[in-house]
Amino acid sequence: MSRFAPLCLTAALLLPAWLQAQTPQQTYRRDVAECAAGRPGQSKADCLYEARSVLRDAQARKPQPDSSPQALAANAVQRCQRQLPADRADCERLARGEGTQQGSVDDGAVVKQIVTRTVGPVPPMAASSPASAP
Question: Around 96, how many Cα atoms within 13 Å sit in the side-chain half-sphere?
């Protein structure tokens, strides 16, 4: 047995009960037990009401979205689907990190810019007449 095993076991036993609770139901049962033991400055009815409210709020919470870099990038590209078809390609390029970025959240704004140059038709050369030549 490792010499650290007794230390880990002791640390786990000394953790406060609120650190050991993992599910909303476990937290609720712990809170109800504390209410039964009596919380200073709080009636049992108020304590139980608060415990039920905490449980209800925990159960109503939606699971947190995936915040991995791959999921965030996919989400950014997916948001481009709401753009007009003419702007969608540029939006997707910005979402993939192309272009330039100025400012910060601390500055109050993040401005992203992408420049797309297109070459249009070349206008016809004005025909010069021999009469106008010097």
Answer: 7
CA distances from 22 to 36, 52, 87 (A): 21, 16, 46
- pLDDT of 16 reads 53
Is there a contact between 96 and 75 (Cβ–Cβ < 8 Å)?
no
Cβ-contact 65, 71 below 8 angstroms = yes
* Residue 52 banded pLDDT, cuts 50, 70, 90: very high
> E strands of 1-134, at which residues?
100-104, 109-113
CB-based contacts of 95, cutoff 8 Å, min separation 6: 73, 76, 77, 79, 80
What's the pLDDT score for residue 78? Answer: 93
Q: Decide if 21 contacts 27 (C-beta within 8 A).
A: yes
**Domain positions in the chain:** 22-61, 64-95
User: pLDDT band at residue 73, thresholds of 50, 70 and 90?
Assistant: confident
Chain centre distance of CA 79:
14
Measured between alpha carbons, how far is 32 from 118 in angstroms, rounded to an integer?
69
